[in-house]
């Protein structure tokens, strides 16, 4: 970011525009730097406003003539899993789950009518932060890459680890995670896991939890399409497929998980749209 | 809580656990008669349950056979007292560390006389692991029961049978525990069990419950992830680390991102935006304490959030939390409470249970005892034999967290008769029997604890005197003294140990302790003598009342009720007088009474009411035996009957102080009937009905009354309730709101209480209330 501000100064951005629209938490944090170093006056826009405007705009423009939104068919099956376009022609109401370092969940009823339903602090930052502590990795991409090679069932305690199979009393499948990191209570098992396993378990834990909270919000708000966006999902097919599967399984097919191309850019697009409106 | 020391003797390592010596009569009590067993083996604690019978001495009263005898002898007592053995049922629950399991099984096997027992119900994760050991040691077949079914059964049982079972937890508040009065209908509720994972169960009826959701982020996540991050192996140590850490060093807060609050959404700057968000910026070391704290917040918040989402979806506002993650840990109760308040915006209350650790064992036991129909009975917590809730705050009691060697006990007595609400309560769900909450009111607590300490010598002496022929009475009385003294000391430091501390609970604890050492009725002889004296005066009192004009008589009757109430061995000021002036009589008592206007005085309204039509039926809760019941209550009853009002006279089922018991009231009524035709015909025609309250307390809990009484109250369309005496009308029920007219009267025989109420010793409370139309 300092490099970007420096570039803005070198290229004399300030002579091109008097107003520089910005959004996101950093807009607040870096406002002073933009002003003193870049001589740029920031027009701070609400992050979520921008996000929603962005996603709706991009979808309406289309992506090379194709829909922006997509979903997964057979997400649990590596062979059959397919990414298919989804036409968001009836976008409202929709539940928008924005997974950045934390998670915000918004119920969107129209272009201008939305509310933040809830949020959770267990987000991308938690995944990356815990991975740094557990594996010593240094980048998000590295953490994801490790996760892709790991086996979370060595770390997590599954229903079948407790009941030997499905827990029929509550119709819980044996493969479901009963306790995330539950096996790590045992010293022997702690010694037997790899960093990759831990990264994978962290990813699964955070992803499942987001799916679970999103599903409950969708039920409470009576919304059945859920769009997941945010940087956490960038190049993160594991999480997307898991979200798709978990939402479908636990809602017995009632809820659909949707994703979007360019999930990281909606905020910027929204900010740009806002700028175009300015005189 | 009994300590269980290791006997050295060259044992080392693992074998150390096998060499403990258990003080048998302290922990596995009544094992000789035990007949049903259940065991719940968790990750670190074992909970054992068994049903046993206790043999108690009970004082029975019986009329003399007067047939063929002439006039009564001057000094003959009015009835005879005999001490009999009675067998009552009791449930025992014991909680101990898994390391003691083998030693405990050995002990049980050695002391298990009863051989009828063939099966032991087992639940909990460890039931599988220890199955062979149990079968081999006890020679009992292990029947495994479903964990969640047991948990729910246990939960229903404690919520129904133990008053003040549920509490809210408020850190830094005094008291930190705020107990809930039992709701008359416990269903529906949500149980969030936080074990290694989280199960969220909706409980709709006794047998109907449904797993509505769960989460894999639970106690196992805290423990497992915590162990990886901090290299700390023990759950308790992790919690201890967490209690000292600063999560803001590890978590990214809203303020870290926005430089302050995110105002458009009203998110405060302190809010955690991303758990462990700061640890993503590598090359920095984080302290174990800070990471543990961050982890604790992450998990507690997540569980709280999910619990709120489920509560909202199913429209439930009562959410109980349990499981090893919670189990008495102030740290987790605090973070869960915080999270629930935050996410529900105060609409949902996080509730915890005093006996949460026992739910599985209780449920497993109930599963095995289904043919005995334990759910048909009412049960009561025995304060004498139960350890009570301990403050486990690590700051206050650092050593208490290291639980090794401690055994925690819970005992429940089966009550003779099922207990229900008085149908006349205005709002059963908001009824609180007790007037002063001593957990809340530190001044009052200090006073009453001291008062009970000071009265202890007298109680011990009275107990010894009540059994002159017993060779071990002195020894037992000493044990009683020690037990009750220890209870009082526990309550000084942990007033919340048995739920809300009240004068009632202090009195009941004393009764339980007396019973424990076989002093079933220390006042039986005193009561017998006083009943004898009062019976002799009955006719004279009636004659003098009958000679009065109507209005004068009404006042004399009320004064008689009040004067009778002065005779109370429960009040120190009075027991001193009675002790040194045994001839202290009815007339003297009347003179002691405050002149009108009384401290609370609605006599005018009462008199006015009496000029109106008679009541349909009056329910009277009697207090003391002797002068109170015979010269105070009976003449009053007689007047009501004369007016055409039916009377239900309710006396305690079991003895407490010098309170008249149901059995004594039967004899007294019979003797009075022999002298008074009005009473005689009323008894014969069922216009005067004698019933028992179901209680053995000097106080009165209108939400736990004998079912027969409740039925009768409804059948007879009772429209007046009379409650007399300090214990029933002031310590309890002073603020009780009823759906019909009520009369609460008492003489204040305690100067501190008199002071509190703005009066003085022997001030009179006469509170006549008519419910708003």
TrEMBL record, chain A:
GO terms for cellular component: cytosol; nucleus. It holds the Pfam family Fumble. GO terms for molecular function: ATP binding; pantothenate kinase activity. Coiled coil: none annotated. GO terms for biological process: coenzyme A biosynthetic process. This is Pantothenate kinase 2.
Automatic annotation (TrEMBL), chain B:
Its main location: cytoplasm. Residues 452-759 form the Damage-control phosphatase ARMT1-like metal-binding domain. The keyword rRNA-binding does not apply. The keyword Cytoplasm applies. Activity is strongly promoted by Co(2+), Ni(2+), Mg(2+) and Mn(2+). Activity is inhibited by EDTA. It is an enzyme of class 3 (hydrolase). Its cofactor is Ni(2+); Mn(2+). It catalyses: (R)-4'-phosphopantetheine sulfonate + H2O = (R)-pantetheine sulfonate + phosphate; (R)-4'-phospho-S-sulfopantetheine + H2O = (R)-S-sulfopantetheine + phosphate; (R)-4'-phosphopantetheine + H2O = (R)-pantetheine + phosphate. Signal peptide: none annotated. Phosphatase which shows a preference for 4'-phosphopantetheine and its oxidatively damaged forms (sulfonate or S-sulfonate), providing strong indirect evidence that the phosphatase activity pre-empts damage in the coenzyme A (CoA) pathway. Hydrolyzing excess 4'-phosphopantetheine could constitute a directed overflow mechanism to prevent its oxidation to the S-sulfonate, sulfonate, or other forms. Hydrolyzing 4'-phosphopantetheine sulfonate or S-sulfonate would forestall their conversion to inactive forms of CoA and acyl carrier protein. Homodimer. Interacts with PKM. In the N-terminal section; belongs to the type II pantothenate kinase family. This is 4'-phosphopantetheine phosphatase. It comes from Vombatus ursinus (Common wombat). The gene is PANK4.
């Amino acid at each position: 970011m300092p490099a970007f501000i420096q570039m803005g100064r070198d290229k004399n951005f300030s002579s091109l525009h008097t107003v520089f629209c910005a959004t996101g938490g950093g807009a607040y944090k870096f406002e002073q730097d933009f002003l003193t170093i870049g001589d740029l006056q920031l027009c701070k826009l609400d992050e979520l406003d921008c996000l929603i405007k962005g996603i709706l705009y991009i979808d309406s423009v289309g992506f090379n003539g194709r829909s922006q939104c997509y979903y997964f068919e057979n997400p649990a099956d590596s062979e059959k899993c397919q990414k298919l376009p989804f036409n968001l022609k009836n976008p409202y109401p929709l539940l928008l789950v924005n997974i950045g370092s934390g998670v915000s969940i918004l119920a969107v009823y129209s272009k201008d009518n939305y509310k933040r339903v809830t949020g959770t602090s267990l987000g991308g930052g938690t995944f990356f932060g815990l991975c740094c502590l557990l594996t010593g990795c240094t980048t998000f991409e590295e953490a994801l890459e490790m996760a892709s090679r790991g086996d979370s069932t060595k770390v997590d305690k599954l229903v079948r680890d407790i009941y030997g199979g499905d827990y029929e009393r509550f119709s819980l499948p044996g493969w479901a995670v009963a306790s995330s990191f539950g096996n790590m209570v045992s010293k022997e098992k702690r010694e037997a896991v790899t960093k990759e396993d831990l990264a994978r378990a962290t990813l699964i834990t955070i992803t499942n939890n987001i799916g679970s909270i999103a599903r409950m919000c969708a039920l409470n708000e009576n919304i059945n399409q859920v769009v997941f966006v945010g940087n956490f999902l960038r190049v993160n097919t594991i999480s997307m497929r898991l979200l798709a599967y978990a939402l479908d399984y636990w809602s017995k097919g009632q809820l659909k998980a949707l994703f979007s191309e360019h999930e990281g850019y909606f905020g910027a697009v929204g900010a740009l749209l806002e700028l175009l409106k300015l005189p | 809580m009994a300590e269980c020391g290791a006997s050295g003797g060259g044992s080392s390592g693992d074998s150390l656990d096998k060499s403990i010596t258990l003080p048998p009569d302290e922990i596995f009590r009544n094992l000789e008669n035990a007949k049903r067993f259940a065991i719940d083996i968790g990750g670190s604690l074992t909970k054992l349950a068994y049903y046993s019978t206790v043999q108690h001495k009970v004082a029975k009263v019986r009329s003399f056979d007067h047939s063929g005898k002439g006039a009564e002898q001057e000094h003959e007592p009015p009835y005879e007292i005999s001490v009999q053995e009675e067998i009552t049922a009791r449930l025992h629950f014991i909680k101990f560390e898994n390391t003691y399991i083998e030693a405990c099984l050995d002990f049980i096997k050695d002391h298990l006389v009863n051989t009828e027992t063939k099966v032991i119900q087992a639940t909990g994760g460890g039931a599988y692991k220890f199955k062979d050991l149990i079968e081999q040691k006890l020679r009992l077949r292990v029947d495994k029961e479903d964990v969640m079914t047991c948990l729910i059964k246990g939960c229903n049982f404690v919520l129904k049978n133990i008053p003040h079972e549920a509490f809210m937890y408020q850190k830094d508040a005094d008291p930190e525990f705020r107990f809930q009065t039992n709701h008359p209908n416990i269903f529906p509720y949500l149980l969030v069990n936080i074990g290694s994972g989280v199960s969220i169960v909706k409980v709709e009826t006794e047998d109907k419950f449904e797993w509505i959701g769960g989460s894999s982020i639970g106690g196992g996540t805290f423990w497992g992830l915590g162990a990886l991050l901090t290299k700390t192996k023990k759950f308790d140590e992790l919690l201890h680390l967490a209690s000292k850490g600063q999560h803001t060093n590890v978590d990214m807060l809203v303020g870290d991102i926005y430089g302050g609050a995110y105002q458009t959404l009203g998110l405060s700057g302190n809010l955690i935006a991303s758990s462990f968000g700061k640890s993503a910026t590598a090359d920095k070391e984080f302290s174990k304490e800070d990471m543990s704290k961050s982890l604790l917040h992450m998990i507690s918040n997540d569980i709280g959030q999910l619990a709120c989402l489920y509560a909202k979806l199913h429209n439930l506002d009562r959410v109980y939390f349990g499981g090893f993650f919670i189990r008495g840990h102030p740290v987790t109760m605090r973070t869960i409470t915080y999270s629930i308040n935050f996410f529900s915006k105060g609409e949902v209350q996080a509730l915890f249970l005093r006996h949460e650790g026992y739910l599985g064992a209780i449920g497993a036991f109930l599963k095995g005892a289904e043919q005995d129909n334990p759910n048909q009975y009412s049960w009561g917590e025995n304060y004498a034999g139960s350890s009570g809730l301990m403050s486990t705050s690590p700051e206050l009691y650092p050593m208490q967290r290291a639980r090794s060697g401690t055994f925690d006990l819970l005992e429940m007595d089966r009550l003779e008769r099922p207990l229900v609400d008085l149908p006349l309560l205005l709002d059963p769900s908001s009824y609180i029997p007790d007037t002063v909450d001593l957990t809340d009111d530190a001044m009052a607590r200090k006073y009453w604890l001291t008062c009970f300490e000071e009265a202890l010598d007298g109680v011990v002496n009275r107990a010894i005197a009540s059994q002159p022929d017993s060779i071990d009475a002195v020894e037992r009385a000493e044990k009683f003294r020690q037990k009750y003294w220890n209870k009082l000391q526990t309550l000084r430091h942990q007033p919340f140990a048995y739920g809300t501390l009240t004068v009632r609970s202090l009195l009941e604890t004393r009764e339980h302790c007396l019973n424990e050492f076989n002093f079933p009725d220390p006042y039986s002889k005193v009561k017998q003598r006083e009943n004898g004296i009062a019976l002799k005066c009955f006719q004279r009192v009636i004659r003098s009342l009958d000679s009065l004009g109507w209005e004068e008589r009404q006042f004399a009757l009320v004064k008689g009720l009040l004067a009778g109430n002065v005779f109370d061995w429960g009040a120190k000021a009075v027991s001193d007088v009675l002790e040194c002036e045994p001839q202290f009589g009815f007339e003297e008592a009347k003179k002691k009474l405050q002149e009108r206007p009384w401290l609370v005085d609605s006599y005018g309204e009462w008199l006015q009411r009496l000029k109106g039509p008679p009541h349909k039926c009056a329910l009277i809760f009697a207090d003391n035996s002797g002068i109170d019941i015979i010269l105070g209550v009976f003449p009053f009853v007689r007047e009501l009957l004369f007016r055409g009002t039916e009377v239900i006279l309710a006396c305690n089922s079991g003895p407490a102080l010098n309170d008249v018991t149901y059995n004594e009231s039967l004899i007294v009524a019979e003797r009075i009937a022999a002298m008074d035709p009005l009473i005689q015909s009323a008894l014969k025609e069922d216009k005067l009905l004698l019933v028992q309250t179901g209680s053995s307390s000097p106080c009165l809990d209108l939400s736990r009354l004998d079912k027969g009484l409740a039925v009768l109250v409804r059948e007879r369309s009772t429209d007046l309730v009379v409650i007399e005496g300090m214990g029933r009308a002031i310590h309890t029920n002073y603020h009780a709101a009823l759906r019909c007219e009520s009369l609460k009267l008492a003489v204040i025989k305690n100067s501190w209480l008199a002071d509190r109420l703005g009066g003085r010793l022997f001030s009179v409370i006469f509170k006549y209330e008519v419910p708003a139309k």
